[in-house]
Amino acid sequence: MAVIDRSLTSLLKQRKLFLMRERSDAAEIVYVCVDDGLPGGYPVGYVIPSRAGTWFAYARARPGRVFASDQVDACLSSIDEAVRAVLDHARYGDVLFALEKGAGSNATYTAEVHRHHATWLAALDVPEGITHLGNGRVRFTGPAVAYLRGLPERFGCHVDDEDRIWLAGESYRLIREIQHTGEARPEGSMG
Questions:
Q1: Phi, psi for residue 6 in degrees, rounded to 5
Q2: Share of the chain above pLDDT 70, in %
Q3: Residue 32's closest CA among 110, 86, 89, 100?
Q4: How many CB atoms lie within 10 A of CB 85?
Q5: Which site from 82, 102, 172, 181 is most exposed, i.e. has the minimal number of CB atoms within 10 Å?
Q6: Residue 185 and residue 177: Cα distance in Å, rounded?
Q7: Is 93:104 a contact under the CB 8 Å cutoff?
Q8: Cβ distance 165 to 159 under 8 Å?
Q9: What is the pLDDT of residues 78-119, one digit of tens each?
């Protein structure tokens, strides 16, 4: 089996994903899985080689479908290219949201964004946990941030591994708030 490039391994780790290989008589399948704390993880895509030596990529491109994947690319020249195709299409924010919520997270984050972005974010049905505080300031619950981390970058709205929310090509810093009895305050503030 081919070796996975270090930069790809690092990207998977940042996104709380890992690869799991399974060999059958027919072929070797490489699953892309969310690290949910269970052995084997939660699969959000997989890649398989063809007899011609190219690769096919399948991803969980429609959230809410349990263990269902769609073909997102074919005839890829390497396993790295196929895994990257999975990353470009896999939607697993709902899985990260459930894990964060199940862990009892009470973390919150705020961001200063353009007012029209704040209004748009607060109007979203999914994920729950986004509040427009006024003047472009938005509060996100930990599960909401987890959900946005599980969206493909190509969607234009996602949270990256450096705690920045991306909206229409612009990034805004998320500030984690420390929970005190009574109210949340940004990290580093005194009170």
A1: -60, -40
A2: 89
A3: 86
A4: 22
A5: 181
A6: 5
A7: no
A8: yes
A9: 999 999 999 999 988 888 888 888 888 888 999 999 999 999
Secondary structure (3-state) at 100: helix
In the block, residue with structure tokens 């096919």: 56
**Residue closest to 94 by CA, chosen among 67, 126, 53:** 126
Residue 33 near residue 41 (C-beta atoms within 8 A): yes
CB contact set of 22 (below 8 Å; sequence gap of 6+): 28, 29, 30, 31
> 119 Cβ partners below 8 Å, 6+ apart?
132
Radius of gyration, alpha carbons of the chain? 18
Helix (H, G, I), strand (E, B) or coil at 18: strand
Would you list the DSSP string of 42-70?
EEEEEEEE-TTS-EEEEE--STT-TT--E
- What is the amino acid identity at position 77? S
